[in-house]
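Please fill in the sequence for the structure shown.

STRUCTURE ENCODING:
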């Protein structure tokens, strides 16, 4: 009886690993989507999400102010975001949109460039 139970447990564990591997492979087959947004940057002071996003990009979409959470991909990107944080300058950020375990949304930023001047957009 113990042999049958241990065999069943072993098969069940093997099946779970196989399913997890298949799911991970299917998720990695999806192409990353790159988004590019322009706005001003502010530091996130208090956040309920624990995914490493430390900045907000503030911009206007359809007449409403929108805040998108940003997570710098490396120290160089973090330094660029720190340099423009709190200043009323436009920057353009690019990266991949992500969802955290807490179902919080952010952009994993891999590029920061000076944005278009507001006067040019009129």
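FILLED IN BY: designer on duty
SEQUENCE:
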């Amino acid at each position: 009886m113990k042999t049958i139970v241990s065999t069943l447990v072993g098969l069940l564990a093997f099946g779970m690993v196989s399913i997890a591997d298949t799911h991970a492979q299917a998720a990695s087959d999806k192409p990353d989507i790159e988004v590019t947004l322009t706005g001003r940057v502010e530091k996130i002071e208090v956040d309920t999400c624990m995914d490493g996003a430390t900045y907000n990009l503030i911009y206007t979409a359809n007449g409403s102010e929108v805040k998108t959470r940003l997570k710098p991909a490396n120290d160089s990107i973090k330094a660029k975001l720190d340099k423009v944080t709190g200043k009323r300058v436009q920057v353009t950020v690019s990266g991949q949109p992500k969802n955290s375990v807490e179902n919080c949304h952010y952009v994993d930023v891999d590029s920061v460039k000076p944005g278009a001047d507001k006067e040019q957009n009129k």
